[in-house]
């Protein structure tokens, strides 16, 4: 009988995998307990997400002053119902972490997990912190072991990467999550990797922590003159972008990318000057990456320093770094956005997410409390409102914004 039940579940899973959308899966799961049981397993959800990637549910914003909040997608966006349910169900205050909870700072979010850290008790270091990986929906967390002394000794006088005010929100490290990327569909909790980086004088230091081994190990960043100049590395790394298992940072004051391939755990430097020649690239949020299902990486460059004050997006594509980048499209954003455009905050599942401030409301408000996010469908080039912040949150220009979208949240409106 057990074998028959297992076979029935396997057949049911194959049927549910053929549902056309995440919304259809939610409705089917709500209609039958057995459907719900099969569809809520980690193995099924990972398989379903590989075929039907769910759109983002909202934006999580975290500012250097410690204020934070989740802002769900608004109607008529298709994610609005699930986003509202997630906002009511998950604990985005992270009160389940070891107290005091307001000492924790959100650093990253990926695959339904959040990465947070806080200053070590009795330590003045803004580089080495206590690190936690958690799931706010199920209120679970793990604390990572500290970086061993034999590795930490290579970090000498790292430059500040975040905050810079000398208070609890200052950080001299870049720390983020990477998917394991092995395609595993087992019923076990999928593994993860944490990457830790610091820009020191004349060098870049990097470590990685694997949940499978529960150990830190050293990575080998490239030796390149773009990384050895104090004038370059003395400022912060640019906005972190991701596509097809690779992370990208625009190296400040240059036309080069620092690239980390998480499949090989190897760094490289990519020269992107031929593409950007003639473009004024002053800010890291003027460029972002977007992965396509054919295996190519799209690069979106925003040109905001034009005589006509218009903002133009240029779309390029490449498969390998050695390829010549192909110009795919050029899009003029609405003319009235010229003074409101504040950059591209992210890209997911064929959409770009653009930050606009409200010029009139923020005229006397330099911390930009009134901010709206729009989505741009890369295929159809249609624009739509995604979510907006509230005046209660001080949206400083250096805030961290992450988009939430993951298979764990597909059924959250059923749970609630």
UniProtKB/TrEMBL annotation:
The protein's name in its UniProt record: F-box domain-containing protein
Annotated ranges, domain F-box: 9-47
Superkingdom, natural source: Eukaryota
Signal peptide (from-to): none
Pfam families tied to this protein: F-box-like
PANTHER family named among the record's database cross-references: OS04G0258900 PROTEIN (PTHR31264:SF17), OS07G0554500 PROTEIN-RELATED (PTHR31264)
């Amino acid at each position: 009988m057990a074998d028959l039940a297992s076979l029935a579940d396997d057949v049911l899973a194959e049927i549910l995998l053929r549902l056309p959308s995440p919304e259809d899966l939610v409705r089917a799961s709500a209609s039958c307990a057995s459907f719900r049981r099969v569809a809520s397993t980690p193995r099924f959800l990972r398989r379903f997400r590989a075929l039907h990637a769910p759109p983002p549910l909202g934006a999580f914003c975290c500012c250097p002053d410690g204020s934070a909040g989740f802002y769900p997608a608004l109607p008529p966006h298709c994610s609005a119902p699930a986003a509202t349910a997630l906002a009511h169900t998950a604990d985005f205050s992270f009160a389940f972490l070891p107290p005091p909870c307001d000492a924790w700072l959100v650093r990253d979010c990926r695959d339904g997990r959040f990465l947070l850290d806080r200053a070590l008790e009795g330590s003045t270091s803004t580089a080495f912190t206590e690190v936690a990986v958690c799931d706010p929906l199920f209120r679970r967390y793990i604390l990572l072991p500290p970086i061993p002394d034999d590795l930490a000794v290579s970090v000498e006088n790292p430059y500040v990467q975040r905050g810079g005010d000398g208070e609890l929100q200052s950080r001299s490290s870049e720390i983020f999550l990477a998917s394991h990327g092995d395609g595993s569909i087992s019923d076990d909790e999928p593994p993860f990797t944490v990457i830790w980086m610091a820009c020191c004088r004349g060098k870049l230091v990097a470590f990685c922590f694997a949940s499978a081994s529960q150990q830190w190990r050293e990575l080998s960043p490239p030796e390149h003159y773009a990384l050895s100049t104090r004038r370059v590395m003395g400022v912060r790394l640019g906005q972190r972008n991701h596509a097809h298992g690779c992370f990208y940072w625009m190296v400040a004051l240059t036309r080069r990318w620092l690239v980390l391939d998480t499949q090989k755990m190897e760094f490289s430097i990519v020269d992107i000057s031929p593409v950007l020649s003639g473009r004024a690239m002053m800010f890291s949020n003027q460029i972002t990456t977007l992965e396509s299902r054919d295996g190519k990486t799209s690069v979106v460059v925003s040109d905001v320093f034009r005589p006509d004050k218009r903002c133009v997006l240029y779309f390029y594509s490449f498969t390998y770094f050695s390829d010549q980048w192909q110009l795919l499209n050029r899009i003029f954003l609405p003319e009235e956005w010229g003074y409101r455009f504040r950059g591209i905050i992210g890209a997911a599942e064929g959409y770009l997410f653009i930050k606009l401030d409200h010029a009139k409301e923020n005229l006397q408000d330099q911390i930009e409390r009134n901010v709206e996010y729009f989505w741009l469908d890369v295929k159809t080039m249609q624009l739509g409102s995604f979510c907006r912040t509230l005046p209660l949150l001080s949206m400083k220009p250096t805030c961290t914004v992450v988009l939430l979208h993951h298979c764990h949240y597909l059924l959250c409106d059923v749970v609630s």
